[in-house]
Amino acid sequence: MSDLAALTAFRHALHRAPEVSRHEAKTARAVLAFTADSAPDRVLTGLGGHGVALEFQGAADGPTVLIRCELDALPIEETGRPDWVSAVPGKGHLCGHDGHMAIVAGLAFALGRDRPARGRVVLLFQPAEEDGSGAAAVLADPRFAEIAPDWAFALHNLPGLPLGAFVVEPGPANCASVGLRLVLNGRTSHAAEPDKAVSPALALSRLIPGLAALGQGGALTPDFRLVTVTHATMGEPAFGITPGRAEIWATLRTLTDDGMQALKEAALHLAGAEARAGGLALTHDWHDDFAASTNAPEAVTRFRSAIAAAGIPLANGFGPMRASEDFGRLSAAARLGGAMAFLGAGETHPPLHAPDYDFPDSLIAPGVTAFLRVIRDLCG
C-alpha cells in the first residue's frame, strides 16, 4: 500500500498527542490537515463536539455508506516505551483509536484518488467514544440529517484474536453499560457520639455486595447482567467525625438495552430500600451511557463477503464483547443496518486499556483494504 508509511507516521503522531473525550480539538485539526489533499466534496467539523465528517460523492444515485472511527484517548498513564510514546502525562492512546483513525484516513486517500461510482461515502471521526457521549451527541447534531447513512460500519482492534484476522458476527457485538453514582446523605456527629449521627455506614456496607448480587456475569446470553462496584467513599478522612455522607459508584452491564432498563430499575429499588432503612436521603445520576451494539445480519454478510474477497482471514467462534462500544447508536440509526467488526491484535498482545498497550501498525493495511472493499461493493 503506497500510503502505508504516511499513515503509520500519522498514527505515531496521534499517539504522541492524546486527547480525552470531549477535548479532542487538536486531534480533529490534525485529521483535517492530514486528509486535506484528498479534497472531500464536503467537510463537517464540530459535529457533536469535535467530530469530523468527510463526504465523498459518487456521480450516480446510490446508498450512503458511513465508516466510523474514534478521536479520543484515555486518562491512563502510558508505561510502554515505543519511540512514539505519549508526550502528555496521564493520557494515552491505549485503546487503539489512533490506529483506527489512521485506517479511516487511508480511506480518505483512496477515495480522493477514486471517488465512488454511486451514492456517497461518509468518513466519521467520532468524538467522545470512551465515555459513551459521542454518538448521542453526533446524532443530536442537526447536521447529522445531512449525512444520515443507509449502511454503517466500524472496526475495533482486539487483543486475544489472531493478528490481522477479522471477526464479524450477526447479533450482539458489544454490551450495553452505564455508570450509576449513588449519594447517601445523613448527618454527621462527633465520633464520641455516634448515636447523634445518621450514618450511611451500614447502608454502604450492604449496598456493595447487594449491587454486585444483582448481576454476577456468566455466559453472554440474553439475560446476562453484570454489576461492578468501581468506587466507594464515606465521610471525612478524620478520626473525630461520625460520617454523614457516602457515595458508591457501580457499572451496570447487560447484553441488551431492554435488559439494561430492568437492571437500572432493580439497582435503584435496592438503593432506595437501603436509604429508607437508614433514614438517609438518596440521590443518583447516570454516567458513561452506552447502548448495546447489535450487528444487522445483512450488514454482516456484506462485511464478511468483502473481507473474504480481499483475501483477509476470518476467524469464527468469538462471541459478543462484554466491553461496550459507542457505535451501537450509530449502527441503529443506519436505515439498512450496521456492523462492528473486530480485528485481531495478536493472541498475546497487551489488552485494551492496559498501560503498556500500543496499536499494531501491521493492522493499518488490512483495515483499509477491508473497508475499501465494502465501499466498492456497495458504491462501486
UniProtKB/TrEMBL annotation:
Peptidase M20 dimerisation domain mapped to chain residues: 177-275
Keyword check for Hydrolase: yes
One Pfam family of this chain: M20_dimer
Binding site for Mn(2+): C95, H97, E130, H156, H353
SUPFAM superfamilies cross-referenced by the UniProt entry: Bacterial exopeptidase dimerisation domain (SSF55031), Zn-dependent exopeptidases (SSF53187)
Cofactor binding comment, as recorded: The Mn(2+) ion enhances activity.
Keywords: Hydrolase, Manganese, Metal-binding
A GO MF term: hydrolase activity
Cofactor: Mn(2+)
PANTHER family referenced in this protein's UniProt entry, alphabetically: CLAN MH, FAMILY M20, PEPTIDASE T-LIKE METALLOPEPTIDASE, PEPTIDASE M20 FAMILY MEMBER
Name of this chain's protein: Amidohydrolase
Organism, as annotated: Gemmobacter lutimaris
